Fold:
Amino acid sequence: MTAADLWFRRFGQRAEATWRLICLPHAGGNAEFFRPWAGALPPSAELLAVQYPGRLDRTGDPQPASLVALAQEIAAASAALSDLPTVIFGHSLGAAIAYEVTRLLDGHQRAPAGLEVSGREAPSRTKQAALPLDDQALLAELRRLSGTDERVFAWPELLALVLATLRSDYQLEQGYRPAAGPPVRCPVLASVGHSDTDVSPVDAGAWTEFTTGRFELLVLPGDHFYLVGQRDEVIAAILRWVTGVAGVSLTPAARTWPGRDGRPPAPAPDAP
Structure:
């Protein structure tokens, strides 16, 4: 198994892809969160969703010691992928990881073409408040954020796994201290829900300090999980942004044909 097979879940093959969208989920989330996005993207886009350790098919894998260590493993797996322009998207905790992955790849031959940070304040505005870690507090947090399928709450065994995963992710969050360093060089798009009580548009707008490239702020209706109800709007905004700022083409690549010359097969002769 390659590092890419371990870390990324690809929902559908895109032989005509001209660019790649790598998506990092929120605390307690998993790669399946982004499965519905794959069908909403054009054929030119290959979607890879990151599967963190400790969930679904990686239940037995240990969590890295820190958020930066997690980012290092994801960055190494990303750098080993085929050479397509890559845009990195992260939501909430995933946005912090996406930022660290981008910092690690900045200056690399395969540096990201763009970074989108969703539902996350800029590092300069990070709040070091204590996060809930006991079961009842975590359960209340899940309900407050409104990002968990209601069926999970009716399935005790599944709920226990979700709470354990969320606790582990919050421990990563509590230990995370953004390191000082130069801004990233790629364009950055920050997005946030207008009614998000955890991240304000001002907090999200401060990401402009962390790139030397172009910066844009997108505010959409909704709360912290605005991207669930606004999925099509979020994807449309990403597509506008990657073409206008990140320089990505939405035109599918030409198909490769069998044969030494790479040309399509000759048409069959007419029947006599």
User: Anything to note?
Assistant: The radius of gyration is 20 Å. Confidence is low (pLDDT under 50) at residues 255-272.
